[in-house]
Structures
1.
Amino acid sequence: MEKKKGISISLTTQILIATVGGIVFGAIIGEWAANLKFIGDIFLRLIQMSVVLLVMSAVAAAVGSGDGQDVGKMGFHTFKWIILFTIISAGFGVVLSMLFKPGVGISLGDAEELANTAVESSSLQETILGFVPTNVISSMAEGAMVPCIVFALFFGIAMGAYTKQSGNRVMVEWVKSLNAVITNIIKTVMHIAPIGIFCLLANVAGSTGLKVIIPMLKFLGVLLIGDVIQFLLFGPFTAALCKINVTKMPKKFAKMSIMAVTTTSGAICLPTKMEDAVTKFGVSRKVADFTGPITMSMNSCGAAQCYVAAIFFMAQATGIQMSVYQMGMAILLSCLMCMGTISVPGGSVIVYTFLASSLGLSLDSIAVLIGIDWFAGMFRTLMNVDVDVMVGMLVASKLGELDRDVYNEVKTVTY
């Protein structure tokens, strides 16, 4: 007997439907939709519970499986592109903020009271010192990604040296197996992504609505325009160097882009980004496992642009004219704060506080930025996640680890 074929809807399409449905449902139902937030939070936690182990096992396996020369080349080319893209993004933040002046005409109102609740920032020296863990177990428990990556790098280097000296690959295979198990956990959790995203967006649309967005449309517009310009610049640039067809990129970026916009979290998007880099873009597993976690924590083009725009917003909203020196410091500090900042929703409030205090700007305007941070996070994360893959592609192409047959859909691979 002939079996009836059911309707198959891809996960990307399901997430897109959930995105629209959640916004519409929340806008209609109103504040009651906040009751659904806990379901979305459960989805986020199910992803977050595995991200640290995924990152550490992926980095350790990528470093420990290759020789020192391979690791050195991957590291050099990865950080080369991270630095270049981040500086360009911060520069766009300056130019667009000077053109559109997002802070002009904003009334701060009761901002001072809200701003007093902002988290006290650490100094730049303490931030950099925090990259090195004193207790990796504590860093894992706190979800501090950069200290975990630093430990994983050392662990991978030591594991590779031990394997080379002894010929014993038991530890390498164990780490790879752990990574495979964690990957399977995340793939299972991703089946409920549409439900989680629907509930998260219903809560945002129901509780926030447009009342906070309307006064800040100019600020959000700066981020949107900056994202569009950078995609139009970085996409063809990456395609040209990798010798691939740029017109195929938008479709391949679709799923991770929707995840980025709806979750506003680079950490939540990490598993999807790493899988798609291998299965859609043709990046080798070795390169994807190395560049994926590192770019998540340190390549934050969207964040750099957003932080620079936030600095100009804070200055313009309080009538301060920024000097050339302050503009230069805005770019420098924004780029530095992109390295290892909190990669979950809401972490940017710490960065805003640090930037304001470092440049002598009023903390009052931070409250307004906090009010629309979820929406700003959409544009930050979208740029961060997609450029992460471009960095992986550029590194893979340079090292001969980019499979163009996979990119061109001539053959398929699994992650």
2.
Amino acid sequence: MRILPHALHAPLARAADALATALFPASCLLCGGDGARPVLCPGCQADLPSLPTARCPRCAEPTTHGEHCGRCLHTPPHFDATCALYPYEFPADRLIHALKYGHQLGLAAWFGKELAARLPAVGEALVVALPLHPRRLSGRGFNQAGEIARALARQRRLEWTPDTLLRTRDTEAQAGLPLKGRAANVRGAFECRRDLGGRPLVLVDDVMTSGATLDEAARVLKLHGAGSVMAAVVARAGRN
């Protein structure tokens, strides 16, 4: 079999993608128009909301000059930094709902690719997804964070193992709780069954609101030897 020179791979890939778009136009998940490659048309992708440039480097909460927010200064979370793509508002929230409840799994691959492009240098990090409890996983059929994590790891050529972190307690949904009760709700909900040996970790979820769930997961991972934990989320919701 003839091996093509590396310099030709990207142009050929672009040509193949253009041909596929012409022959099999996909429908945009937001506007329904043709030409969505892979999930959104260029116009809808350009309309996705942006996070403010000035935000807390630890939790991605907006701040005046990009300094650490008061909450992270007073009670630092166990994760060390946050990489987020969008604010949790229309139409980004609609895409996340389409993945979680509409089983649009193509979005997981797209989110993972976008996060991989935005993620800073993390060395030989281990990618870990925020897990679902087995009962909830059985009902949904898949873990959206796990699918995003898988795509991110593939894009960045990082190790990903779906069983590093387990959810051993089926907690009440965080969205129905006041912010002050969320940390208590997830306390003791996670379990790690391996020695992480000082490795940096990328902890993936779809949405961060109060950060309590990611904080508890990061706490458990650090108890088992994680050297650092970078939270990587598709959307950052305002705490209020």
3.
Amino acid sequence: MLFAKSSDRPVDEAQVLEWLPARPASERLRTTYVAVPDAGAAAVLGSRPTWMWGVEHGVNEHRVAIGNERVWTVDDPRSAPPGLIGMDLVRLGLERASTADAAVDVVTGLLERHGQGGSGEEGADEPYWSSFLVVDAHAGWVLETSDRSWVATPVDRGAAISNRLTLSTDWTRSSSDVEPGADWDRWRSPNAPTGIADHRLAATRRCIAADRSGPGHAVATLRDHGSGPWGVPGAAGDPEPPPDGVYDDWSGVTVCMHVRDYQCTTASVVADLPADPSEPMRIWAALGTPCTSVYLPVGVLEGEAVVPEVLGDAEVWRSFSALSRMVERPGDVGEAALRDIRSALAPVEAAAWDEADSLWASGAAAVRWRAAAAGWDEQVRVALVACRGRS
């Protein structure tokens, strides 16, 4: 199973990648807004906006991966009291489940008991409902929610989600208030245009259908600015600049998002989850927009993960965020900045991928992973200085 997910958030909101160790059960667990019974936790690699408890996407030690997206429905999230936000549900599902099936049970059980509620953005009144992509090494689910109602359908040969409801009558599980055979599209808000998601949904579905889809192609898809995948790690090619605005048909809202002064992609992950337990998980993560960032390998070993230091550093996130603003400048200026940035970052990314492939193939111990990660940290910091100097 290949899992790829980007997080679209406010442009100035830092997000970091963390290894959250396993912990025993306790009495109560404080999430972003409410406390829930603490059932203990599996170890989780999660990408977390620094102000909240939950995570935007992540993978646990059992090779379960979950990510969420905002959706608009006929139910008003502003009328809901504080509860679990979508990112809390992502983290709780990862902490408590060893399979994708179990994760759906965890998320829906908590949803029905505690509800969704509370702003998904710091310092703003922005509550919302979520859809989820939940997978493990063997199978997965698309889960879509509206308040405490939900429907889900199994992943077959692949699935994609974006900022809209996608399931109509092709769901196989639901909350008790959704009647058998009901058209879930009736829950979609008529006031929210689906065009904000449709272009991106089409792009990610093409990635799933492509015969050449794999980790590198997933990264290239996450860099899509509207004209198709680009930027496969280690491959030559001209970078594609972001669109210069949001157009009437919403085509300016792309997979690698640059909605200026509002929202952009702030973090990203690709995870290769092999079904054979003797084969290692392979994970690559990036801070900021994929076009101006580096997907660095993460070594998940038995009982621990080696996360390159830069991926957990909010100041490094801000450096990558500054590069995003450079490429968003109009016309030739932004395009030239992107070329300069990629010329500095692409060799670092390619070298890290090659070295990690050798580490995974040889079953390298943590000490070798830590040495490699320290080298990648240094190379990224040097490249960031070069980017600022050239742009």
